[in-house]
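Not sure how to ask, but would you mind making up any protein sequence you like and the tokens describing how it folds?
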Amino acid sequence: MKKRILSILFCGLLAVPALAAKGPTINLIDNKLSIDADTVPLARLLRLLDQATGLKSKVPPELANRTLRILAHEVIPAFR
């Protein structure tokens, strides 16, 4: 009985990271941009993009809270 309880708890602990929400990721490697963002506000996405690229973006207040889903890998940006 103890082994069953321990195995159930162990399996439950292994499943927790899979259920956790994943935040947006932005990578700029070798001048190739990759973005993976699911339901992220536009203002936050542009702030993260600015940090990765060194750009300065402005978001109108009426668009700042609009959520987006973006998935792009190894895009060659035009601002090189």
